[in-house]
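User: Hey, my collaborator sent me this sequence without any context and asked if I could get a structure. I don't really work with proteins. Can you help?
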Amino acid sequence: RELSGGQRQRVAIGRAITRNPKLFLFDEPLSNLDAALRSEMRVEISKLHKKLKSNIVYVTHDQVEAMTLADKIVIMNKGNIEQFGNPDDIYNNPKNIFVAEFIGNPKMNILKIQKENIISKNSFKLLNNIIKFENLSFKKDFYIGIRPEDISFENESEISAKITIDLVENLGSERIFYTHVNGTEIRIKSSQNIKDKNITIYLPKNKIYLFDNSKKRIKV
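Assistant: No problem. I've predicted the 3D structure and written it out in structure-token form, which is a compact way to encode the shape of the chain:
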């Protein structure tokens, strides 16, 4: 009774290990730990997994735990499996917007493009001859996605937008820049220290993800 919630969790894990089971079932075992201890325990559980060579089913809402601990990830949404695969494949090839936004920190930027607004306001350029929408019908709106770390301030590409920086989060070695395009919040992750508030950002076309009106991934 004198143990804290985090201590109880660690004791429970230790008890499970001593039984040498064929299968471990972990339901958010690190949820009551502070950030520093959680990071330490992630490393220890990963070492144990390799040492014990047992199967582990690990339930978590923490994407960092999922990406760093898992050989295979099952992403659930309201009881349904959205995607199953290894961490790299899920990160690089999300099947829909739910998966795309769930994995990655900060989450993927998603912009809704209206069919009548292919060249939209704010100097946001998205032309048919830049990205070939081979399977995309312009009878409906669609979405484009790009991860915050893939947006550049310097490397000019075919897709660009003139933006105003609203907020900067200084994380030491890198910064998160917050802006907006056509009323949608955009997050940019960069190690650069940008002083100007009004600048141009560039989106490389090979880093763009396309989603149809039902929010499913379109591969072109």
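In plain terms: The first helix runs from residue 5 to 18. You can pass these tokens on to your collaborator as they are.
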